[in-house]
Amino acid sequence: MAIKKEIIDDLLSNYKNPEDLFGEGGIFKELKKALLERALSAELDDHLGYAKSDPKGRKSGNSRNGHGSKKLTGDDGEMEISVPRDRDASFDPKIVKKGQRRFDGFDDKIISMYARGMSVREIRGHLEEMYGVELSPDLISRVTDEVMDEVRQWQSRPLDEIYPIIIFDALRVKIRDEGTVRNKAVYLALGFTIEGHKEVLGLWIEQTEGAKFWLPN
Fold this sequence. Notes:
By secondary structure, the chain is an alpha+beta fold. Helix 3 packs antiparallel against helix 4 (120-131). The protein has a domain at 27-51 and 61-155. The protein has helices at 5-11, 27-48, 107-114, 120-131, 137-155; strands spanning 64-74, 77-86, 165-177, 180-192, 198-206. 19% of the residues are buried. Helices cover 31% and strands 26% of the residues.
């Protein structure tokens, strides 16, 4: 069935280029929010000494106490995240510290973590750079596991059966690789749903940019 021109025009009315994904209200901000909240949850697990719903937490002297909201300003505008709390208010987050209002300079690392093909070692290295402080191996391991779970869920999430429009493109991003900052190509598949919503279908990182990437193997 042919798609009416009016529908296509409506779907593309607010789309200009892939960079729109990384601005105010972009899909990338949702990915960053999800990853940060997962990392904070893992930090609280480490602080309390037990995971959520673990029987070890009963009568432990301290427990989870809901969430608070926090607004952060970064390169892509303002973002509100949910920060877990504990009952005795002794939890002191590391990745987003108390009183911190800016979170920027990490977009390339977060893109990398959602891209397919990243190893646990690479994600661990990104997290250590993002935290920027010396942390215990146990905490880094716990946060890495939590972030890996978030990334795998995103990569394996069910997609719609039909996307009327799919756009394939690539962005040049500076990414730290083995201690050196290199320009790499982030290949992007962007789908428009029947309702007109934009969805990132996939992210892949390669050394170079070229149309041959999209050809069947």
